[in-house]
Amino acid sequence: MKYLLLVFIGFVLFFSCKKDKVGYVPTPYELEIPSHFPQMKIPEDNPMTVEGVELGRHLFYEKKLSGDNTMSCGNCHAPANAFSDPNQFSTGIQGIQGSRHSMALVNLGWNNFFFWDGRSKTLEEQVLLPVRDPIEMHETWTNATKKLKADAKYRDMFYKAFGTTEPDSLLAAKALAQFLRTLISGTSKFDVMYKYENGLPLSDAEQQIFNEITVQQWGGYDLFKSLNGADCFHCHNGPLMQVEKFSNNGLDATFTDLGRGAITGNPNDNGLFKVPTLRNIEFSAPYMHDGRFATLDDVINHYSHTIVMSPTIDPLIEFAFQGGVQLDAQEKNLLKQFLLTLSDEEFINNPAFKAP
Amino acid sequence: MAKINTLGFLVLGTLFFTACKEEVVPVPQEGPAHYVKIEVDPMFDTEVLHLDSVYNTQEGYDIKFSEIRFYMEDVRNGSTQLIDAGLFDYRARGTVLFRAEGKGSDFGSLQANLGVGAANNHSDPSAFPSESMLNILNANDMHWNWSPGYIFVKVEAKVDTIPDGTPLFNHNVVLHAGLDPNLQTLSFENLTWTTTGNDDVLRLKLDMSTFLNGSQVIDVKDEPSTHSAPGQEALTLKVMTNFKEALTVH
What we know:
Chain A is an all-alpha fold. In chain A, 37% of the residues lie in helices and 1% in strands. Chain A has helices at residues 2-16, 50-60, 73-76, 123-126, 129-132, 141-149, 152-162, 169-181, 189-197, 204-212, 215-225, 260-264, 296-305, 329-339, 345-348; strands at 246-247, 273-274.
């Protein structure tokens, strides 16, 4: 009798404590945020996971997302070019070229709007558009996800990331967004300069970099920040070297591309485009929304001499009335020396960002 | 043997009662949170001011404001702080200066800085909590790193200085005031809060006509620009004192 009771209690104990079946729980991904950067806001419905980031990396370089399986996001956003395109305009699968330069992808997790005209407010929303754009990858998400589902590798990766073997566009977008949030650049010479001037502690390695910063680079930085020098800081500022705004930077008197104005319908926004980060600018040529300038020298010359007035010109370009800030040859060289401090080789060569 | 059985019962019994013990779930506090909200209504004299709309200055210029922003920091009633900082950004956030947990009845008067006090003004802007308006992501271009610190008041406009009937808004006005010596203090007394739902709301008026024509006139044709740089001290201080005058309780 006692044994029966013991067995009974044992059964009760065993079954009463059995947990509910638990679904797959992916591994949290710890972002490495540079100490002088603000925290990144991660959407509650798309937490960063190791499996999600890895899936996103595969999708970023996956040519099946295009209509004829020849093109991936990485085609127009190459790591060696700061995730931009060395061509003025990227060519889509139909051989059609757009009218805007491919934007560099860096520190996107701190951005609140995307594309040159800011038409997407989240990364998850943004990554959906190039796939179905007729002049880019020209594929429906229905077809794209069918192709992914037919691939055992992706069924496995979607399961590991999201607990399902049924890929859909929203999950693909989440994975791509997770990968893009890992593209953090914060280890350039400029970062050491920024930390130094803000009284933030430098590590031993940073101290070594600090010692290598030249007088010319510091001089260029002074010009960059000077109201009566190059006056760049109004739009390129802070640890991210970017102000989140739209600006008409005096490229044209009239606009063939309305930019932000085409989205808002507000004439005051005509000719305004998203201000890009200057990080890794050495690698992201050509420059401007339409890639009209091939070199950094061209860009510096524009802000020095060829600014054009128009009704919506950014009021912060205060020397527009005289064509620009009128830097001389020596100043231009100093400014360029500073701009090169924004190069982050560690970021450019990071194997975690490259094609799997 | 009997002792072993008894021991076995005791062990199993203990396991039975302790192993499946559920975690204590905290009981949620009852009642919705209550908030204090301050809204700022930009005006031009008696008219509601809209960005990019045309108003006429006392000098006869037509003016279109494109940006109006300011920091109100360390908002408190005596020793009770309501919020570390509010950032008014008419274009981006409309009329809301801030919304913080609290009750209007606790804030019959308010004191605050117009701008950002020295302690916060020179702190690492990335280190503030992400919800703080002092965090660099929220401050955005309201923070300088050429002269580390915040822009306290930012007013930008386009002006037609030639009253010939042809609208030509080609005269830019850029007034960016900051730096510790220009910090102003604000004090609002005998406040009446209006309750809407869970919010106790206080409305302030920001009269941009008073801003231009306060105790010291800002002639936008002759004084169109300050970045609070050396040599611009007089206009910078004028921007701050006039802005303070322009900001009153509705």
